[in-house]
C-alpha cells in the first residue's frame, strides 16, 4: 500500500502519526481514502473543487505531481506520497 | 569571505526584510562573511518573547526599534578596519507598496525575505524578479522551515512561485509568536539564508555544475526528526513571477541594444 508522509501541522488529524499507509492506485484515490481514514485532513490539502490547494505541493516519490498527471498521477504500492505546505513564519 | 566566492558586484547590498527570528541570524551570517553593505527593514520594537530566537537583541533592548538595535549590534561585532555601511529602515512594508519599494533598490541588491507575512513574501519575491534582483525566501515555524534562493537571471531554475502558486491564507500560516518556534531552527535557517545570498552574489553561481547551483532549489527541513528535503522542480509553465523575470531580461537586453555606442 502507498505511504503518505504527513507534515507536522496535519498530524493532529492522524493522531500524531508522521506517515500512514493509504489504499489507492492514483493520487486522487489516495487523497480521498486519506480523508476517509482521517476526517478533516482532506480540506487542508484540497479545495472545495477537489483541486490541490495552491500553497501545497504534493509529491509522488521525488516528483511534483503538477509535472506528472496531477490528481490522476498513478501511485504504486511502494510509492511515498509527500505533502509539503508553504511555511511563512519568520 | 571564503575562497571561491567571487562577488558578482564589488560589494553588493544585502537587503534583509524582517529583523526577527530569521533576519537576526541571517544578519550575523552576512556580517561574518565580511559583507560591506547591509540594509535592514522592520517596523517592530523588541519584545522579551523575541529573545529566544532574535539573537541580536537583549533584555536591555526591550521597547526599542529592532532596526536600530540590530544595526548597533552588528557594528559592535564588526572590525573597525573593514568598511561596513548599515542602513536601518524603520518601516512596515505592505504588499501594495512593495513593487515601488523594490524598484527603488540599487541594482546590485540581493534581498533576503525574512518577514512572517505570507503575502509579503510572495509580493517581495515577485517584485525582485520583476527588477532582476536575486532573492532568498525563508520561512520557519515550530521545528520546520524552508529556504529557497531565486535568481531571475537563471530562467532554467524554478522560482518560489513555481513551487507554491499562491500564499497560504493567514489562518493556515501562523506566525512564530502564535504557535512557537525553536530558536535553534530559526538560527539554522537564517544562517542558511545568508549562505544562499552569498552564493547568489558569487560570479560562479550561474556556471556551477547543475547540482551545485544555489538557485531554484527549495530546502525543506523538519528538525524534530532531523529530516532535510531538496525540491528542485523545473520552472512551472505559465508562472507569473517567471514571466516578470523574463520581461525584465527582455527589457534589459533592449536597453543594451539601444544604448548609444
Number of helices of chain B: 8
The CATH fourth-level homologous superfamily of chain B = NAD(P)-binding Rossmann-like Domain
Question: What is the typical, i.e. mean, pLDDT of chain A?
Answer: 92
Give the oligomeric state: heterodimer
The CATH homologous superfamily of chain A corresponds to Beta-grasp domain
Reported for the largest beta sheet of chain A, the result is: 5 strands, mixed
Largest sheet geometry of chain B: 8 strands, mixed
Q: For the residues shown, what is the average pLDDT of chain B? A: 90
The overall strand count of chain A is: 5
Structural class of chain B: alpha/beta
Indicate the CATH class of chain B. Alpha Beta
Question: Could you tell me the radius of gyration of chain B in angstroms?
Answer: 18 Å
Q: How many domain units of chain A? A: 1
Please, how many helices of chain A? Answer: 2
Task: Write the topology of this structure.
The complex is a heterodimer of chains A (90) and B (261).
Chain A: E1 3-5, E2 19-21, H1 27-37, H2 42-45, E3 56-60, E4 63-64, E5 80-85
Parallel strand pairs in A: 1-5
Antiparallel strand pairs in A: 1-2, 3-4, 3-5
Chain B: E1 13-17, H1 23-32, E2 37-41, H2 66-76, E3 85-89, H3 95-103, E4 109-113, H4 118-130, E5 135-141, E6 144-150, H5 160-163, H6 176-179, H7 183-201, E7 218-222, E8 227-231, H8 240-258
Parallel strand pairs in B: 1-2, 1-4, 2-3, 4-5
Antiparallel strand pairs in B: 5-6, 6-7, 7-8
Helix pairs in contact in B: 1-7, 3-4, 4-8
